[in-house]
């Protein structure tokens, strides 16, 4: 459970840093490039410090391909915030929990208990309540393309999370350092190439904030893999998602004085209940 808690803490830090960048109106791709650079550096150090790290061509290719999905999912999220508003983009990212749960049941034969099924119900109620509490503050998508961005967020984040579980079962713990390095190294190459091709001006503050973002980013993946090694995905994914929502809401109220309305307060209650039920 410690790895699960650390995953939530790291992922919440990512959400708060993205919120800070949005308030500063920093370029999201530049932020992403700085983030992946620092994450790749930490991944390289992790390999050097690891005891008997294992390397393989399969992990090299898998990490290189998954890096593409990491970048595309983040790009879709950034576009969703722009065209549909923060609330709907956030809801899509959290609803992504449905994808790895269904795939875990289908491919890994994980069966939820009655308590966990009730927890899933409360998890969905929580996400919907948060959406209803926030939707009045943001613009709504107007075109089919906008909805495709939202769908891209849901599928992209959900598939990425599931592929982390696939790797954990397929390659094992010894190749984790190499795998994480490959993801973030190639993600940096892809985003840096985009910055260069589009001739995006380098804003020092945005790049530095991206570097800070890279620290919890790589460790969130590290702790997620560790949690999946000891707990079934049908517990890890929903607990992580609801935990991020609850903790981010508390932090946003503290840092940016964001206040919850009645539906938001009910969402906090159902979210806590969902976590308790899912961990039974």
Describe what this molecule looks like in 3D.
There is one protein chain. By secondary structure, this protein is an all-alpha fold. It has one domain (2-18, 28-278). 82% of the residues lie in helices and 0% in strands. The protein contains 11 helices and no strands. The chain has helices spanning 2-24, 28-49, 57-84, 86-95, 98-108, 114-134, 144-170, 176-197, 204-230, 233-255, 262-278. Helix 6 (114-134) packs antiparallel against helix 11 (262-278). The longest helix has 28 residues, at 57-84.
Measured on Cα atoms, how large is the radius of gyration?
A: 18 Å
Ends apart, CA distance between termini: 12 Å
Q: What are the secondary-structure elements, in order, as H or E?
A: HHHHHHHHHHH
Report the uncertain regions.
Answer: none
Morphology: globular
Secondary structure class reads mainly alpha
Helix content: over 70%
Quick one: biggest sheet?
none
Can you tell me the number of structural domains?
1
Q: Average pLDDT, to the nearest integer? A: 82
Q: Could you tell me the number of beta strands?
A: 0
As an assembly, this protein is single chain
How many individual helices? Answer: 11
DSSP strand (E) fraction? under 5%
């Amino acid at each position: 459970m410690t790895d699960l808690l650390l995953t939530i803490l790291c992922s919440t830090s990512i959400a708060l840093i993205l919120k800070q960048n949005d308030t500063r109106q920093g370029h999201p791709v530049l932020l992403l490039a700085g983030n992946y650079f620092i994450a790749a550096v930490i991944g390289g150090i992790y390999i050097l410090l690891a005891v008997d790290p294992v390397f393989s061509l399969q992990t090299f290719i898998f990490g290189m391909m998954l890096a593409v999905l990491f970048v595309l999912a983040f790009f879709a999220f950034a576009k969703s915030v722009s065209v549909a508003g923060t609330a709907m983009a956030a809801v899509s990212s959290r609803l992504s929990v449905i994808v790895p749960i269904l795939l875990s049941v289908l491919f890994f034969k994980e069966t939820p208990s009655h308590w966990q099924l009730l927890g899933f119900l409360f998890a969905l109620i929580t996400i919907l309540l948060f959406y209803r509490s926030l939707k009045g503050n943001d613009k709504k998508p107007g075109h089919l393309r906008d909805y495709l961005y939202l769908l891209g967020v849901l599928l992209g984040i959900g598939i990425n999370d599931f592929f982390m579980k696939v790797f954990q079962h397929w390659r094992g713990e010894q190749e984790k350092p190499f795998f994480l390095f490959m993801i973030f190294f190639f993600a940096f190459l892809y985003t840096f190439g985009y910055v260069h091709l589009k001739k995006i001006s380098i804003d020092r503050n945005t790049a530095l904030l991206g570097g800070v973002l890279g620290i919890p980013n790589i460790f969130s993946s590290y702790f997620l893999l560790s949690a999946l090694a000891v707990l079934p995905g049908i517990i890890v994914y929903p607990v992580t998602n609801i935990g991020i929502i609850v903790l981010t809401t508390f932090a946003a109220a503290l840092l940016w004085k964001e206040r919850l309305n009645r539906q938001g307060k009910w969402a906090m209650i159902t979210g806590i209940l969902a976590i308790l039920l899912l961990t039974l």
